[in-house]
Amino acid sequence: MVADNISFARPDLYIIVLFLFSYRDFSELIRDNFYMSISIIVLESIMADLPIAAVTRVAKNAGAERVGADASEILVQKTEEFLGELVREAVKLANHAGRKTLKEEDIEMAAEKFA
């Protein structure tokens, strides 16, 4: 199999790619290196970086008695979107101050925009 010589930093992506290799309809498309790299990028972009359990725990600490699986997934997605927007705004502030490093003050000022 072509995927035997490929090393993945994330084993969950390796499993998904191997799963896709098992389908004959996709095998010719994915075996081509160009399409394989695009598939890996797309798969990686939909994989959540935040653990669902941690976000669910935050929701419970905020007063939710129970959190459904579908609610947990959307909480992770919305949290990642919010953090992305917050960091983008903080990066603008750091750049304006002539820095590349984000500081607490950048995050605090950026958070005020969303409050």
Give an account of the 3D structure.
The protein has 115 residues and is an all-alpha fold. Helices cover 71% and strands 0% of the residues. It contains 6 helices and no strands. Helix 4 (52-61) crosses helix 5 and helix 5 packs across helix 6 (104-114).
Write the layout of secondary structure elements.
Layout: H1 11-21, H2 24-31, H3 33-46, H4 52-61, H5 69-96, H6 104-114
Helix pairs in contact: 4-5, 5-6
Main traits of this protein?
115 residues; mainly alpha; Histone, subunit A; 2 domains; elongated
CATH topology of the largest domain, by name, is Histone, subunit A
Average pLDDT, all residues: 75
Rg, please? 20 Å
Amino- and carboxy-terminal Cα gap: 52 Å
**Secondary structure category:** mainly alpha
Largest sheet: none
Strand content: under 5%
- Could you give me the name of the CATH homologous superfamily of the largest domain? Histone, subunit A
Whole-number tally of structural domains: 2
Which CATH top level class of the largest domain fits? Mainly Alpha
Can you tell me the residue ranges where pLDDT is under 50 for at least 5 consecutive residues?
A: 38-45
Using DSSP, what is the number of strands?
0
What general form does the structure show?
elongated
CATH architecture field of the largest domain: Orthogonal Bundle
SS summary, helix count: 6
Binned, the helix content reads: over 70%
Q: In sequence order, what are the helices and strands, one letter per element?
A: HHHHHH
